[in-house]
Amino acid sequence: MQVLLRQAKTVSDQRRIQVVLMRALDGLPPVRIAALTGLSVHTVRVIHSRFLREGEAWLTGRPGRGGRRRTLLSEAQASALLARHALAAGQGQVVEAGQFKRDYESTVGHKVAASTVYRLLARAGWRKVVPRPSHPQKDPVAEAALKKTSQRG
Asked: ∠ at Cα 124 (120, 127), nearest 5°?
């Protein structure tokens, strides 16, 4: 067990091993172990319980808390949805977020927030590309004349 403590790569791994060692070597109660390690009494009891059930493998090499836990679509479903709209975008058509949102909702089966759709588009690397606005009644001749006669400061 002390070999495991020396080989631990993260602080959380070290702390879990220390909790088990303090109980095994010194016979300290969970309240005292919690005070020494800075963990809660409940966490110390959970560590002891999981160690007794699952053994040494549980103490080290546990994955972090990262990842998407509340997904509505699997990766395959999301990529299929993006592929359907990427085909239209590749042909020069404008892909509107409103239509994409309706397709997303039909795939999921219920309404979703717009931010959910925008986060999916951002993860896929899509961005908002909008042409610059121009007035429908603008006169290119008058614009060119203004450029020639105006003073730049």
From this structure: 90
